[in-house]
């Protein structure tokens, strides 16, 4: 299980490292590098629009790789998506800015961002199933949550790397060439991830399906035809946690640097502390859902998230580094209450023969409604109303959708995996 946990989390760690450095650069420098003709806040909104492209493309990855995951196996898809993500991220590091290539520069940025999103769209379900379908059926919540640690570890790794760069490089050097270094460094992580994953065997439940010739011939069609209600519930469960994450992690950087006019290290330090706590809390709440059930833990996180959407800005507006750190850390612990049980909750909604396809579609389609446009909506709401109240109401509404989805879904913690 140790190697399975590492293999499950290393891919999501790498891919969220890639996603994190892109998100941070969108908040910090992309407005000047790729959209220099606009005022800073408008440029940031355009940069967050490219962030949204990474979510819009996820369903494509969910469709393609979800189909392949139920046809060719979990391990094959995990290697393919890892390579795809690494190549796209490395090429962003070589991409010339607007001053050199004009309009082609942001166009190519959007294209590479599209490939990043497609890779993550096919990655997540496979990473979860790798550990969940191998491990003990009584610990599915804990085992599935190993993949959920990846985003926090990737966020921590990416944020830490960028923090070091900002400490050793001047703002001019960072904006000129320093921002490229984290993208190029992902090549090393790709090689390690491929080595680790290729040493893990295919999951027993998929091998059993293959041996009995019971694999779905058209997994996507079967999901939409026979399991569309489960797809809606599984997808709806993700929306609130994605929006809360976008607020606490992505928008914090813009808010601290451009609204509160504090230094970048303050925002980055808060994000790193929050990510570290999130990484510890995710498997804890995943394991807790094995004992108490997925729904009670999930619902508690959603309710607390509604409260924190308002407390968060009260602490942020103090402009005190300690209170900013508390706002981010507590926000990400609340996020972990939903994110820990989420992997098992989503994948358990579908039978084995279409579990990869169903989980991928739920993950990616919900990502568009939730996380994909969340930073763009949050920044636009703030620019339009000049107040954080509208943002808090938006986060609360998203969490209400998640509450409804989790409430009407069936409890899966104590039930055996559906074959």
TrEMBL record:
SUPFAM superfamilies registered for this protein in UniProt: MFS general substrate transporter
Coiled-coil regions listed in the entry: none
GO function terms (MF aspect): transmembrane transporter activity
An annotated GO cellular component: plasma membrane
Subcellular location as annotated: Cell membrane
Residues annotated as transmembrane: 21-38, 44-65, 77-101, 107-132, 153-171, 177-196, 239-260, 266-285, 297-315, 321-340, 361-382, 388-409
Keyword terms, alphabetized: Cell membrane, Membrane, Transmembrane, Transmembrane helix, Transport
Membrane-related topology note: Multi-pass membrane protein
Domain of life: Bacteria
InterPro entries: MFS, MFS_dom, MFS_trans_sf, Sugar_transporter_CS
Residues annotated as domain Major facilitator superfamily (MFS) profile: 4-413
Protein name: MFS transporter
């Amino acid at each position: 299980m140790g190697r399975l946990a590492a293999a499950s989390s290393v891919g999501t760690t790498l891919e969220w490292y890639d996603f994190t450095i892109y998100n941070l650069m969108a908040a910090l420098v992309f407005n000047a590098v790729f959209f220099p003709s606009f005022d800073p806040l408008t440029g940031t909104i355009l940069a967050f629009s490219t962030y949204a492209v990474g979510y819009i493309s996820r369903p494509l990855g969910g469709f393609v790789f979800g189909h392949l995951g139920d046809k060719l196996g979990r391990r094959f898809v995990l290697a393919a998506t890892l390579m795809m993500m690494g190549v796209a991220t490395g090429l962003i590091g070589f991409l010339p800015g607007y001053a050199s290539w004009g309009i082609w520069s942001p166009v190519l940025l959007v294209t590479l961002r599209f490939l990043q999103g497609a890779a993550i769209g096919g990655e997540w379900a496979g990473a979860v199933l790798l550990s969940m379908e191998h491990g003990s059926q009584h610990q599915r919540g804990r085992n599935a949550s190993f993949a959920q640690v990846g985003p926090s570890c990737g966020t921590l790794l990416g944020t830490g790397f960028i923090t070091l760069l900002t400490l050793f490089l001047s703002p001019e050097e960072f904006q000129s060439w320093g921002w490229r270094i984290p993208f190029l460094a992902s090549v090393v992580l790709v090689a390690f991830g491929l080595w680790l994953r290729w040493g893990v065997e295919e999951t027993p439940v998929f091998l059993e399906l293959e041996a009995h010739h019971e694999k779905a011939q058209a997994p996507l069609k079967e999901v939409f035809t026979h399991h569309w209600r489960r797809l809606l519930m599984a997808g709806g469960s993700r929306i609130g946690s994605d929006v809360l994450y976008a607020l606490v992690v992505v928008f914090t950087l813009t808010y601290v640097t451009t609204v509160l006019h504090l230094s970048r290290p303050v925002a980055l330090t808060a994000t790193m502390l929050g990510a570290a706590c999130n990484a510890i809390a995710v498997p804890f709440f995943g394991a807790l859902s094995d004992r108490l059930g997925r729904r009670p833990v999930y619902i508690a996180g959603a309710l607390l998230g509604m409260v924190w959407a308002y407390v968060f800005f009260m602490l942020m507006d103090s402009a005190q580094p300690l209170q900013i750190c508390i706002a981010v850390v507590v926000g990400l612990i609340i996020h972990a209450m939903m994110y820990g049980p989420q992997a098992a909750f989503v994948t358990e909604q579908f039978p084995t023969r279409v579990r990869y396809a169903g989980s991928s579609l739920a993950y990616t389609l919900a990502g568009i409604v939730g996380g994909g446009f969340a930073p763009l909506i949050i920044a636009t709401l703030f620019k339009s109303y000049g107040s954080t109240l509208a943002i808090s109401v938006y986060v609360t509404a998203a969490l209400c959708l998640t509450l409804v989805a989790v409430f009407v879904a069936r409890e899966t913690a104590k039930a055996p995996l559906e074959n």
